Amino acid sequence: MTVVATLGRADRRQIGSLRQVPWNTVVTDFVPYADLMPHVAVFVTNGGYGGVQEALAHGVPMVVAGDTQDKVEGSARIAWSGVGVNLRTGHPTPAAIGRGVRKVLADERYRRASRAIAQQIAAAPGTAAFVADLECIAAERRPN
Mind listing the UniProt keywords for this protein, alphabetically (predicted)? Predict the structure, then answer.
């Protein structure tokens, strides 16, 4: 197993302050999630919108620990939809993260639910359909 950890900031001094990084761990300030997700078995996240959307689009189950902004609600939705485990804190212990990861990896239902969401995202018509819908609404409301 390889662990990829991102700090979410461009301040590389934070990386240098880490005491010891296990041999199977890569720590960096940024990773393009679209490039990483096809290789990920489980995504541990704070529930940020971009990372969650990439994980969902790639069918990757999650362990989420977020308690700021809209992350509490997003974390609850991740658990409710069956695509991941909500640790219900923004500051999980390493043991809690480990339990969450083991749970997601051991139960195929998380991966199946994640893949089902990915299929729905792939099948969605996207912005072209949205624009077409807006044009129809605007045409219906246009005075004669």
Answer: Glycosyltransferase, Transferase
Burial annotation 43-70 (CB, 10 A radius, 16+ → b, else e) = bbbbbbeebbebbbbbbbbbbbbbeeee
The alpha carbon of 93 is separated from its chain's Cα centroid by a whole number of angstroms, namely 19
Query: Which distant-in-sequence residues (6+ apart) come within 8 Å of 38 by Cβ?
Result: 58
Taking 80 as the threshold, does the pLDDT of residue 43 lie above it?
A: yes
Residue 16's pLDDT is what? 61
What pTM was computed for the model?
A: 0.82
Token pair for residue 144? 């004669």
Question: 32-141 has which CATH code?
Answer: 3.40.50.2000
Structure tokens at 51: 């990372």
